[in-house]
Write a structure and sequence with these properties.
The protein is mostly helical. The protein is built from one helix and no strands.
């Protein structure tokens, strides 16, 4: 074990926990970042879904264009 044990109180910036205004501001900022992240994820998901749908449509059109077999 280490000779210098870690004091948990040293791991937190002074005044962070006991400053309600700072904590409120950080919570609001985190909420905004979370909302932006979710919106970005939904946009990326929608783009991916549209790409997959376009690929399926192209594949279906290609299959539909295959001529019927000719009897010989």
């Amino acid at each position: 074990m280490s000779e210098n044990p870690i004091d948990p109180s040293e791991l937190t910036s002074p005044g962070t926990i006991s400053d309600p205004a700072l904590e409120e501001r950080r919570a609001r900022e985190a909420a905004v970042r979370e909302a932006e992240s979710r919106a970005s994820s939904e946009t990326k998901f929608e783009e991916l879904r549209q790409e997959i749908e376009a690929e399926r449509t192209a594949a279906a059109n290609a299959v539909g264009e295959v001529p019927a077999p000719v009897d010989s």
